[in-house]
Specification:
1 helix, three-stranded antiparallel sheet, mainly beta
Length: 168
């Protein structure tokens, strides 16, 4: 038997949450504007090689691409946070810091291959052997914005990886 499963999904997400209260009259708003895209494809073969040997094998591909603008505001406008080391790309109370607003782009690419064999070498006793290999890469990019949020360069300067690569 041969089978193919294809998936494509795109989601747009826009929301604003107001955490302010009437008692304090202090506005506190978090916002998000995002687009999320996913594509996956799997091809699978299964069958019987002999009357005592069955198999399942396949390959899989996954790709995700997301883009999101998010942040928060307070009573004085955009929230601002001091940098860890007196750094930052905007002023927060007169010292270098970062706006809470950031644009993030992240991608995930994953490929895999798998196989399993079931060998019935005696009545009511079957040996099952199989394996899977997966290669996955995740990347994040934080482009500069007019709001002064953290950027990819800030992550690199703080020795925070912007790409993870895993093989299992």
């Amino acid at each position: 038997d041969l089978s193919s499963i294809t998936t494509y999904r795109t989601v747009g997400q826009d929301f604003v949450v107001d955490y302010g209260t009437a008692e304090t009259a202090v506005p506190s708003v978090t916002f998000n504007d995002g687009v999320y895209n996913v594509f996956a494809q799997e091809f699978k073969a299964s069958g019987t090689l002999t009357d005592k040997l069955k198999y399942v094998a396949g390959v899989y591909y996954f790709y995700e691409n997301n883009k999101m603008l998010t942040g928060s505001t307070g009573a004085t406008g955009l929230n601002c946070y001091a940098g860890r080391f007196g750094d930052g790309n905007t002023l927060c109370g007169g010292v270098p810091g970062y706006s809470s607003v950031r644009l993030s782009k992240n991608t995930t690419t994953s490929t895999a291959a798998y196989a399993q064999f079931d060998w019935e070498f005696m009545d009511r006793l079957t040996l099952i052997a199989g394996g899977r290999f997966t290669d996955e890469v995740k990347e994040i990019e934080l482009p500069a914005t007019q709001y002064g949020g953290i950027t990819t360069a800030d992550l690199v300067n703080a020795d925070i990886p912007t790409q993870l690569h895993d093989r299992v």
